Amino acid sequence: MKPNPIASLANAGVATTFVATVARRWAQRGLHALASVATCLATLFIANVAYSEVVARAQPAISERQFDSWMFQTAQNEAGCRKRLAAQLGVLLDEAVRDHDLTESQQQQLQLAGRGDVKRYFDQVAIRRDRFNELRYDRQKMNEIFQDIQPLQQRLNQGLFDEQSLFHKVLQQTLTDQQRKSYQREAELRAERRAVAAVRVAMVEFEHMIPLTHEQRERLSALLLKYAPPAKIASGYLKYLMHYRMSQIDESEIDGLFDEAQHEAFKKYAQQGRGYIAFLRQQGLIDE
Fold first, then answer.
1. Which of 48, 37, 39, 36 is nearest to 12 (CA)?
2. Domain range for residue 39?
3. pLDDT of 182-206, one tens digit each?
4. Cys staple from 243: which of 92, 145, 236, 273, with CB 3.0 to 4.6 Å?
């Protein structure tokens, strides 16, 4: 909330009037020394309040673009985020229609559920935005705001239409038994494809530093596949997550895989990957 210098100075004026009254009564009783001290204190008090208000008014408000940057990150702003979520929902609906031959009624139910997830998310964004606007003149409060929006950042990074979403719940309720079996098979296949794609991303990044033979690449890829995320991860975070996952490979599992120089390079690369743990935890991509 923007500082209100008039209200603050008015409160200071009330306090100063009270002190002045006390000082006058002390003077009438002959307590001139105490009266002088009280008058000095009142003068210092109102001067301090006035100075504080000048400083507060001079401090620029934090731009609302900063809120958008924190909240929406690579989507940049609310419009960009809405567009991205609409595209994600469209892809999910297309997959469901293609894989499960949904009826028109089922499609409409899923569309409404997905829109409900989006609305619920942006309702929470609006609450955080209001709080940000109240405190945007107080830079010392910005860490509180950042902590407050982190759960929504994580929700977005993990995927708005995950197993906790209205979309997923309605999908499970509206599918027939046969469609549900088909959905489960397709979900497992998609998870496998995502894991393989994540490993490929990791190997490309890794081989920028450490070239491998075909045999080394195949063996390391097989090891890393155990650590690949089955859930869809935003591309901007995937390489960091997989770099961290590579650092989790036990030394015993790579025994004899590298020559001495490669092994030393791998250890340095793994150490760098472990450095991402705080960032990945903050984004809600790992919980260890």
1. 48
2. 5-58
3. 888 888 888 888 889 989 989 999 9
4. 273
